[in-house]
Amino acid sequence: MGNVNDTEKRPLPRRQPRRFWGHAVLFVASVLLVNALIGDRGLMQTIRARRANAAAAGDLLRLKQENARLREQARRLRNDPRAIESVARGELGLLRPGEILVTVKDVK
After folding, report:
1. For the chain, what are the domain ranges?
2. pLDDT tens by residue, 57-91
3. What 3-state class would DSSP assign to 13?
4. What three-state secondary structure class fits 102?
5. Residues 84, 77 contacting (CB under 8 angstroms)
6. C-alpha distances out from residue 65 to 51, 62, 79, 83, Å
7. Are 36 and 30 contacting, i.e. CB atoms less than 8 angstroms apart?
8. Lowest mean pLDDT among 10-19, 49-58, 60-69
């Protein structure tokens, strides 16, 4: 009869719902963290987008500077006779009347 009294005094083991909910919350938090880091709009994608934006801004600045240089060169070619002469001599090989072209080659 001692066995009957022992079982009556001991409470039935309860399932521990706290453990389940703790694991569930941990799992959900882990999934959210992973999604925040590597998801479509996650941290890694944000860093890549910022790097691409910085590279594009650098390219834009370089192109603006080149555009300004070309605009100035075009203005000079329209208005400055020395710029026109420089291009005619350098690219077209033109000479003034009475000038003699002398080509010097290195001897090997």
Report:
1. 17-92
2. 999 999 999 999 999 999 999 999 999 888 888 88
3. coil
4. coil
5. yes
6. 21, 5, 21, 20
7. no
8. 10-19
Please, what is the angle between helix 81-92 and helix 43-79, to 10°?
A: 100
User: CB neighbours of 43 closer than 8 A, spacing ≥ 6?
Assistant: 36, 37
Nearest Cα neighbor of 80 from 70, 90, 68, 72 is 72
- Alpha helices for 10-80 (secondary structure H): 17-38, 43-79
Residue 100 structure tokens: 């003699």
Residue 89 tokens, joined? 């001599």
- Tokens 């002469």 — which residue? 85
Residue 90: the pLDDT is 82
